[in-house]
Amino acid sequence: MIKHTRLMNYLTKMRIPFYKPLLAATSAAILASCGSSAPAIVSTPIANIDTIPLKITALTDAQFKNWPEADLVYDTIPGMSVNRAYSEIIKDQKGKKVIVGVIDSGTDIEHEDLKNVLWTNEDEIPGNGIDDDNNGYIDDVHGWNFLGDAVDENLEYVRIYRELKPKYEGKSASTVSEANREEFILYKEAEQEYRKELNETQQNVSQYEQIKSQLVAAHQAVSSQLGKEDYTIEELRAMQATAQPLSQYKAMLLQIQQNVNENIPKAIEELDGAIDYYSEMLEINLNLELNGREIVGDNPDDLNDRNYGNNNVMGPEADKENIKHGTHVSGIIAAQRNNGIGMDGVAQNVEIMTVRAVPNGDEYDKDIALAIRYAVDNGAKVINTSFGKYFSTHPDWVRDAIKYAAEKDVLIVNAAGNESLNLDEKMVYPNDQTPDNPLEISDNFLTVGALNYDYGSKLVADFSNYGKKNVDVFAPGNKIWSTTPNNEYEYLQGTSMASPEVAGIAAMIRSYFPKLTAPQVKKIIMDSGLPVQANVIVGGDRLNTKEFSELSTSGKIANLYNALILASKVSK
Asked: Coiled coil where (predicted)?
C-alpha cells in the first residue's frame, strides 16, 4: 500500500494558490482531415513556461474540479492542457479504441460516468459458467478479481515478520547459516519496520485522541458563549474572554482557524478521520493475527496456483467502499466525456478493463504479476498501476510480467508513491530496476510523481516521492475530482491520481497514433512535457528546496497538447 491517500485527504490542507499574469503564446492552425486516426498537427508546442508570472487569485470551485485539464499559459494553472488539446487538435477526429487496464482495488462498473466506457470481453458468454474464450478465466466479462472476497490485508513487512518469526526470533546473524543469511536479513528488516510503524501508529492514535478531546472541550465552551456551533474567525476574535479556561480556549481555536483555514467542526471531523485511519492500521494492516488471504484459498507463494478469484470486479462489499480508489482512478482516465454528467476523463476512445488485485493493505506479488499478464493477454495497450510497497517477497515475478508486457508492446504507467522519499535512494515495488542494477529492465514502464495546483515554489505535492533516475515525469495529483462509488464524485489526492492522468495521455497517443510503440509513447510523454527550471519545496519542508528539473528523469510536467504535437512528428 503506497500510503497514505486516505489519511492525506483528512490532514492535508488545501493552500490558496498565487499565480502569474499569463504570457501570450503563439498557436498555429490545426491541419487535420476529418475521420483520420492520425491527425496532422502543426501547432506550436507550449514552451518557456518559466517566464509565466504567478497567478494572484485563488482557484474557484469550478477550477478546482477541472484544474488537471487546465493550460498553464491560458489559465495560469499547471494542468495538462487537456481542454486545449481537444479544442485545438482533436476537434472531430475519430481515433482508435484503446483498452486501458486498471489494476487496482476494483471499479464501480455501474457508475453513471463509467458504465459506457467499460471493456467487455466479447468472446465470453456472460453467466454460463464456462471459459468460452479459453483464456483461463470463467465469465470474465469486464475483467477479473484476483482477490476473490478478500478485502483487508496486512502490509508486506508484517506478513514477512509473522512468517519468519518462528524461525529466527532470538537468533543473531552469527548463529544463522550462510544459506539462510539473506532470509534472516529480510526478517530483521521487516521486524524493525514493524516495530517502528506499530509504535508510531499507537502514538498517533493517542496523540490525535488527546488533541480531539481538547478541541471538543474548547469548541463546546466557545459555542455556548457565542450561542452558535458554526462561528467565523471574526466572531471568535470579537468574543469577550477574560476568565480561564475560556481565554485559553479562544486562543487555541484562533490558532487552529488561522493555521488550517477551516471552521472548528470541520477540523474535528478531520481529526476523527485521522483517528479512524490509524486505528484501522492497528486493527488490520499491522495486526499479526489477521490472515486476510485465507478466504481466497490459494497459495500466494506459488505462481502456478492460478485457479482462484472470480469475475466480480466490484468485490464483495455491498457499500462499494473498498473500490473507491479504483473507481477514482478509472474516472480520471476515462470518465465519459461530454455527457453532461459528473466529470470528463482525460481520454476518449477508451475502454476500461478492471483488474482487482489491490486490497486494503499491501498487494501480493503473485496477484500483480498475474494481473499484468491478464491485462496484456486480453488486449490492454496501457496499464495503470496506482499502488506500491517497500518490501517484496517475489519481485522477480512482477519484473518478469513487466518484461512480458514490453514484449507485447504494452505501456505500464505507475504511481511513484506518497512518502516524500527519493526513490533513487529507496527501492519501491513494483519497479523496472533491480537493487543491484540501476539499468531499466524494460523501456515500457513510466513512473509518475504528483503536482500541486500551486504553480511556483509549491508546485510539487508535499507527499510525492521523486527521483532523478526512478521517477520519469510529474502530473496533477493534489485535490483531484473524480468518480467514486454509487454515482458520486470526490476529491482525492496522491501519486495514485497523478499516474492515471498520464495513463490518459498515453491512451490518447495510442488512440490517434496507433503505429507508435510503447517505448515511443513513453519517450514522447517525457520529451513533450513542460520543463520547469525553478526551485521547488520538497516534502512540504520550506528548508528543503530542489530544482524541479532534478526531481525526475525528464524534469517536466506531462502535457497532452504537447504530447499530441510530438506524436504527430514522430509518427511521420
From this structure: 191-218
Coil, strand or helix at 460: strand
What average pLDDT does range 532-537 have in this prediction?
Answer: 92
Catalytic residue positions? 104, 325, 496
CB neighbour class for 138 (10 Å; exposed up to 12, middle 13-18, buried from 19) = middle
CB 457 within 8 A of CB 536: yes
Would you place residue 366 in the very low, low, confident or very high pLDDT band (cuts 50, 70, 90)? very high
- Cα 537 to Cα 195, 425, 457, 465, distances in angstroms: 31, 19, 6, 12
Burial of residue 490 (CB within 10 Å: 0-12, 13-18, 19+) is middle
Task: Give span(s): CATH 3.40.50.200, the chain.
Answer: 73-152+306-571
Residue with cell 485545438: 88
| pTM, rounded to two decimals | 0.90
Report residue 100: phi and psi, to 5°.
-115, 120
**348: exposed, middle or buried (Cβ count in 10 Å: 0-12, 13-18, 19+):** buried
Q: Burial of 460 by CB count in 10 Å (0-12 exposed, 13-18 middle, 19+ buried)?
A: buried
Neighbours of 213 (CB within 10 A): 11
Other residues' Cβ atoms within 10 Å of the Cβ of residue 453: 25
**pLDDT, tens digit (0-9, with 9 covering 90-100), for 88-126:** 999 988 899 999 999 999 999 999 999 999 999 999 999
* 3 state DSSP class of 544: strand
C-beta of residue 190 within 8 angstroms of C-beta of residue 239: no
User: What is the sign, positive or negative, of the torsion defined by CA atoms of 387, 195, 426, 536?
Assistant: positive
Single-letter amino acid code for the residue at 472 = D
Number of H helices, E strands in the chain: 15, 13
* DSSP string over 79-137: S--HHHHIIIIITT-----EEEEEEES---TT-TTTTTSB---TTS-TTSSS-TT-SS-
Which residues neighbour 52 within 8 Å (Cβ) at sequence distance 6 or greater?
Answer: 20, 22, 23, 72, 73, 76, 455
Average pLDDT value for residue range 132-137 = 96
- 187: exposed, middle or buried (C-beta count within 10 Å: 0-12, 13-18, 19+)? buried
Which superfamily, per CATH, for 73-152+306-571?
Answer: Peptidase S8/S53 domain (3.40.50.200)
How far apart are alpha carbons 467 and 538 in whole angstroms?
A: 11
35, pLDDT greater than 60: no
Spatial distance between the Cα atoms of 536 and 464, rounded to a whole number of angstroms: 12
Radius of gyration of the chain (CA): 25
